[in-house]
Predict the 3D structure of the following.
Amino acid sequence: MNGLELSAGCELSLPSCADGGLLLSTKAPQVSAVRVQLEMQSLWRQFDQLGTEMIVTKSGRRMFPTFQVRISGMDASAEYVLLMDFIPVDDKRYRYAFHSSSWLVAGRADVAAPSRMHFHPDSPAPGAQWMKQTVSFDTLKLTNNLLDDNGHMILNSMHRYQPRFHVVYVDPAPNSHLHAYKNFSSFSFPETKFMAVTAYQNHRITQLKIASNPFAKGFRTTDSQTWEGNGGPLTVYCPPEGRAEQPPKPAQQSSCGSNTSTKQKSPAPALVEQCELFHHEDDFVGLTMERKDGNSLLTPSSFLYCGVFQ
């Protein structure tokens, strides 16, 4: 492919030309010096070592860790658009083997979902604005709904993805479309790869998300002393998303109803939050605490089970 053909291809599909070979040396000065640093890199690496998982739902789920970057090297007065997309890491579909706590290839990948770009809501903005603070994509949501019309990123469950970050210089020249490939620069961070899932598979990922998310501090530990009068730990039963099933019946159990004595501090609200952490669609920074009535946390009776195991 010669330079002219590659140039034409970049105009049609800007992100796919991030590795344009010799054309990288012809980037516009407004983007050639741009440098991007991933925020919370150590946390991303902790997840990556375990095999990062991100929940996808029909109505969309936010990512945790949130994709955040620090940018330098921009032209302070030039306008830039920031955007993200997600590309498959390979052409495989996976399944999780619980006996070995590992992901195994389950076959060929499903048909790729329509490619989408997520524009940062502050775009376009001057370089000075982008560089003065951390750029966060905390409004980005992931979905497995192929018919989604909310602009969420459509991903296939049980497939691996690599997030990509793009910086696009808004060239005011009237013929800027003729050299569009010069006006952008793309960045990806290997530690941000993840497996799209509808429910967490690796329990260590679940534990790390609870431990590291500041909005989960209310249920990072299960302290039996917080429920006075009981000698055993509390147990939460959270069925897989989209599956209606009754919880198992232990030998001894205690109700989580509203008729608790004044001496007992009901753990229901915290436990509801813990269950909803993984199974409701609307969340905040990857954790779910949905309020169905706008005031209090509610959940079906079959969704929450509180028991005392001796």
